[in-house]
Amino acid sequence: MTGITIGIDMMGGDYAPDEAAQGIIRYLAKSDPALDLVLFGDEPALRTLLPANLLSSPHISIAHAPQVIGMHEHPLKALKEKSGSSIAVGYQWLAAGKTEAFISAGNTGAMLVAAMHSIGVIPGILRPAIGAVMPNAEGGAAILLDVGLNADSKPAHLDQFAMLGSLYARFMLGIQQPRTGLINVGEEEGKGNILCQATYPLLKNNPELNFIGNIEGRDIFSGRADVMVTDGFTGNIILKMAESVYGISAAKKISDAFFDRLNFEYYGGIPVLGVAKPVIIGHGISTAIAFNNMIGVAKKMIETGLPERIKNAFAAYPAA
Amino acid sequence: MTGITIGIDMMGGDYAPDEAAQGIIRYLAKSDPALDLVLFGDEPALRTLLPANLLSSPHISIAHAPQVIGMHEHPLKALKEKSGSSIAVGYQWLAAGKTEAFISAGNTGAMLVAAMHSIGVIPGILRPAIGAVMPNAEGGAAILLDVGLNADSKPAHLDQFAMLGSLYARFMLGIQQPRTGLINVGEEEGKGNILCQATYPLLKNNPELNFIGNIEGRDIFSGRADVMVTDGFTGNIILKMAESVYGISAAKKISDAFFDRLNFEYYGGIPVLGVAKPVIIGHGISTAIAFNNMIGVAKKMIETGLPERIKNAFAAYPAA
């Protein structure tokens, strides 16, 4: 054992468990010895999917979890009725410290509800958020949040999203003083909807942030900000619209570094920020590429100690 | 005189008056005899810009309006202090019936405030909206509204935006039963933020609409809806993000019919819907292409009698 152990839900997503298995094979082809993987799913099925060398590897173990929570099941109901599901068992291991991160491309609602109930929210966090790494046309990338967990957000939530995003940009994207922008419909202070008007002064006065002011829709891909803060409604529309631009460019066989990076699989998945341990939710249509990249992101979240850093930051600077 | 007379603010926009003049030259090169143009601006300056054949044309007249409302001036204050501005005089002519439509790439706020005060809002309309024609990857286009007039919208406003958009799609885009979608973060009824949850039943129960339910960020370019309804905050972010995608693809010299149509100049400008007469606001950076297309859109709004049709529809089906 190396100290880095990541749990993977093998039953989540439209292409489970095959693509999850292929993603693991892909990741391990880079032969990362500093990693142990625990695969949650139906053991007999998984044994037929993985090659003998992986099944006999001391770094791979299977935790039998034969039940599956479907993509459209009611999260709370499904979790109650399916205690043997890959998501439920995966979180049991994470909460018990037997794994250090958990990855799933399964039912997003179930992943979030289970996170709250098992590992819990970091003290001081009003609402966890989910973030998406968005590429820009300058070759860099920013973290956009919230992308859908909080359809209705309040100013204090956005202030916290800004802090969560800044910590992500700093430790995961390697940007020392992340430029943090508030997504709005005008540049000057005082512009925008009621939410943004009330949020602006909070961000401006938050000493933990390098706040650069409002940014607009045209700045999403411009590289102006490293952290793009918005409510979960707007963030989700932006994310899905960006994904669709990739889909269109791919269908047209446009080969370009920027449009290619709009492929959600490039960044792998969506980290849940504000919960006590690293959790990554993949797109329902994740393939091996996404699983491979999600393992890399989860590993980095463990190595950088991101949840602990978030905990310390929120202890030092509680909610506005 | 032919009965179709369009007023153009020659002093609005970053490239005024040159690009407005070039746009007119471009439009008239197609020699549309069924059109008279009134140009509002500094007469001596305009006389140096336009060729002799246009200046001597019975279809072109200049209304001297030497003052200019700058792009960043406070709308109400500027209108009060500059009664000789091209925007103020342009609306005086429109309100008096001496022109039938008004086009400007100038100060958006001033254009809207002046519209309310001069020609006024159609009875029953709670809030006018501005709409953007958005191309889709299937070769068609939809009207997206509101794109920025109402940063905070209420369910009844969105219901009216849906009606305004449907009428625009029907008479301007030629779509008989425009499929009207509510931009949201989930497909099923009951999903989304508080605004969308409350708006959904209004749209569903509005007999004037062909409501197809919620649409998501990935549907903006998919061609699923002909009318895409949203609040002015979300709509503005979507519009500017779409414009930036064009900017990126143009900078990369990607030549593609869809990405090319994301150029805002292709559709010319943003119609103001819900005011008593056709008004079109252009992008501040409009060039001749945009002015040329705005003239065409204004002409069609007059020919189809769009404001009158809106008036009749709202008289028959008042606010929810």
Beta strands of chain A, count? 11
The largest sheet of chain A is: 11 strands, mixed
**How are the strands of the biggest sheet of chain A laid out side by side?**
3-2-1-4-11-10-5-6-9-7-8
Give me the Rg of chain A, rounded: 19 Å
Seen as an oligomer or otherwise, the chain set is homodimer
**Order of helices and strands of chain A, N to C?**
EHEHHEHHEHEEHEHEEHHHEEHH
**Percentage of residues assigned to helices of chain A:** 40-55%
Primary descriptors:
11 strands; alpha/beta; 320 residues; homodimer; 13 helices
In terms of topology, how is this protein built?
Two copies of one chain form a homodimer.
Chain A: E1 5-9, H1 18-29, E2 36-41, H2 43-49, H3 52-55, E3 60-64, H4 75-81, H5 86-95, E4 101-104, H6 108-118, E5 129-135, E6 141-145, H7 155-171, E7 179-183, H8 194-204, E8 210-215, E9 227-229, H9 232-251, H10 257-261, H11 264-267, E10 270-273, E11 279-281, H12 288-303, H13 306-316
Parallel strand pairs in A: 1-2, 1-4, 2-3, 4-11, 6-9, 7-8, 7-9
Antiparallel strand pairs in A: 5-6, 5-10, 10-11
Can you describe what's shown?
The structure is a homodimer of 320-residue chains. Chain A is α/β, with parallel strands linked by helices. Helix content of chain A is 42%, strand content 17%. Chain A has an 11-stranded mixed β-sheet with strand order 3-2-1-4-11-10-5-6-9-7-8, sandwiched between helices. In chain A, strand 5 and strand 6 form a beta hairpin. In chain A, helix 4 crosses helix 6 and helix 5 runs parallel beside helix 6. Chains A and B meet through helix 9 of A and helix 9 of B.
